[in-house]
Amino acid sequence: MQNKRKTLLGLFFSALFLVLIFYNVDINELIQTFRQFKVNNLGAIVAMFAFSLLIRACRWMYLLKSDKRFSLYQLTSTWVIGNLMNAFLPARAGDIWRSYEVGANSRESKMKIFGSVMLERILDGVSVCAILYFCILMYANLSWIRHMADLSALLFGGSLVSVYLIVKFDKINQICDCLIELAGKFPEKVKGAAVGFVKKLSHQVTLFVDGFEVLKSNYYTVQGIVMSLAVWFLECIITYWVIKSFGLHCPISAAMFVICFVALGSMIPSSSIFIGPYQYAYILALGIYFVPKSEALAVAFVHQSILMCSLVVFSAVFALINLAVSFIPRNSVQVEGAKENSAREALAGNYKEF
Question: What pTM does this model have?
Fold first, then answer.
């Protein structure tokens, strides 16, 4: 029932944005803009997008403190497929699937992996806010953009500071103990059930907060922040390349505004593949530079189509590889591994004799 409500809410917002998008749109100008796209740039755009996915997987590995149980291939594959699921399923179900998949394969707590995914999202928000403030200071200090940046900074910056303080001072156990003590003061009829429920909830919350333990390490925290900024800067370059492919003479700041508006707009409930908020964010961002609505809409549709088609292809390739690997008998893999270990031991022995 709850998923149905979220779906209906997403359809409502998508329909609302589509009305705003196509109101007073010049269809002839829209079609003409589509024809101006330089197909020769498509390969470079897809290559840069693939590289950005790899950087995101590397960042996730750093947020997991480079635990050897998590291979770069596994995290890249899971991230790509999960992100595709986010585009088509409600409530960012792909993030939940990512946590379950990696947790099951590594025998790690799924709630802990989910915590790392949430930290990843918080760092994304903080990075987008940093880019947006830079654009405001350097290019367009408009009040409505400043209000958007302030609200976003309050949300993501406040979340990052909160989880940092909880992890740094290790207060989660004290908070859980207080909740259990509070539940123990309930009436006798519900006291047992309340305490049992709070204990189970406290256990899950503790595991979830463990996913943020990387914040205890300055090295991995800095690496995560730097890679987050690198990812979003690369997204700006990709967007700038797409805009230039239409022959539009816009500065790099236009692409930066587009990325910020699209990223923040993705938090608005919508139908599959974020139809509606994505295009409206593009129109708002390029409207700052007086790009006609029809041209901005054409660029938005092409950009989103390239990313989604690429994501589908990459996900299909990873899924086929994973399927093929699943058919390889584990015994043969173990035998090969044992042979490799024996060879290494023999080589080490020869080296010692030498």
Answer: 0.83
